[in-house]
Amino acid sequence: AQTVTQSQPEMSVQEAETVTLSCTYDTSESDYYLFWYKQPPSRQMILVIRQEAYKQQNATENRFSVNFQKAAKSFSLKISDSQLGDAAMYFCAYRSALAAGNKLTFGGGTRVLVKP
Amino acid sequence: GAGVSQSPSNKVTEKGKDVELRCDPISGHTALYWYRQSLGQGLEFLIYFQGNSAPDKSGLPSDRFSAERTGGSVSTLTIQRTQQEDSAVYLCASSLSLGGSGETQYFGPGTRLLVL
Predict the structure, then answer these.
(1) What is the tens place of the pLDDT at every residue in A15-36?
(2) Looking at chain A, which residue has its C-alpha nearest residue B96?
(3) In Å, how far is A27's CA from the nearest CA of chain B?
(4) pLDDT band at A97 (very low <50, low <70, confident <90, very high)
(5) Which of B5, B37, B38, B43 to mutate to test the interface with A (most CBs of A within 10 A)?
(6) Which of A15, A38, A76, B38 is most enclosed, with most CB atoms within 10 A?
């Protein structure tokens, strides 16, 4: 079974600064997808960014980018120019590319605090 | 609709009572998922539906939990004889289809269940 680990329970960042969230995963599969979701106090999970394992290029979405290291099974999220609205729980998630494995496996989450 | 909707937003019940949680997926999405988010267990998969195929119930924690999806759209998660450990946020998500292309799962705002 796949597992996803987020080793940082909480991270604090100054507004306009950069913060990096760590995520490692364990799998024997070669084809899969990785996601970062944001969960603000409203509870709704919002997709931040996704990465296909077969792509070597790191995904980027505006101020959010990932560092995907397939051999190391690492998938970190960098938030640049942090804004107050970035404060939330962030979850890393894994999804198998196999048709039978469509469920998401989540890490434990990292709470991001943004200081004005 | 514009997004995944869930009702009720909050539910308080007494131990031993049955509860029904409802999820209305994004129009046109054929796959629907239920997850549970609790302090002790984090985010865990419960069940998913894909079209007319038999659902994957592998994540249901006990036979007190069941779910159905009528007409390929709205889904109801039922918890019978609720226990205090059932207290959690129940999240519903939907995606365009099951398969290897890694369709993104879009989440609803969740139902917070408190069992007294």
Answers:
(1) 999 999 999 999 998 889 999 9
(2) A102
(3) 17
(4) confident
(5) B43
(6) A38
